[in-house]
């Protein structure tokens, strides 16, 4: 799921070693648009803490540009966009389902699973090469083969936003209200 098309997979093969040399993991690669001006979107994060700074995005962008200037893997003009996966990020690796256990997600499979392709519920981790999800309104935990997933994304919830705020506080970054993360606005 990190790369959807054959062209995306070829680009990922070029991008991944560059990212790894910078201590980054590629979360997803997508080449979007028609034949005119296309957009190459690269989502990346630090392997150590699943975060990325603006400066690291810029470094990865410059490094990928150098490789692409030499290899010329995309015909015509394209815009290179390097970003973090964001708070309501795509879940593209099996390890993402362990990392975000307990958070709400939407999954879509490439084939029918018990008569449906779309699922929404709380991530319950992984078992072997399967994703576990506690579905809304159901008592049983669903087991979905990771290889059957066509798309998976976290749902933006208060719990997910709180997790993001806690991570920012650990890094000493300001909160969304502009106050230092540890400061209460009522103080």
Question: What can you tell me about this protein's structure?
Answer:
By secondary structure, the chain is α+β, with helices and mostly antiparallel strands. It has two domains: 6-83, RimP-like superfamily, N-terminal (GMP Synthetase, Chain A, domain 3); 94-154, Ribosome maturation factor RimP, C-terminal domain (SH3 type barrels, Roll). 29% of the residues lie in helices and 34% in strands. The chain has four helices and eight strands. Strands 7-6-5-4-8 form a five-stranded antiparallel β-sheet. A three-stranded mixed β-sheet has the order 1-2-3, covered by helices on one side. A hairpin with a 2-residue loop joins strand 5 (116-127) and strand 6. It is globular. Pfam families: DUF150_C, RimP_N. Belongs to the RimP family. Its main location: cytoplasm. It comes from Brevundimonas balnearis.
